[in-house]
Design brief:
It is built from 3 helices and 4 strands, in the order αββαββα. With 114 residues, the protein is an alpha+beta fold. β1 and β2 form a beta hairpin. The chain starts with a helix and ends with a helix. About 6% of the residues have low confidence.
Length: 114
Amino acid sequence: MLFWSIFFFIVLCYLIIALIFKAGYDLVRGRNANHARTRHPYRSWDPNEYKSRRWKALRYYVIQREGGRCQMCGGKAETAHHLSYRDGIICKPELLQALCWPCHNAIHEKSKWN
């Protein structure tokens, strides 16, 4: 009886692993390996993460932390800018700064040409 229990357990594990790899699931990144084809070529994350509840909550926290003011011009903050993309979109609040859209766009225009 013990032999058959172990045998079926091993077969079940083998089938699960085979199905995972057949589906193209990436065990390292935790998502479908074909997902990389749909991403922006210069980004290492999924742009749809900006629509997630976690990102929206993090953005709200950063804006509130700065009193709703842009850290560059003092205007009304509307977004959170990443100081570093090393940890992906959902990162530590210390790596984000509250900015208004004109200042945020100016930073990205400046970095595009450097």
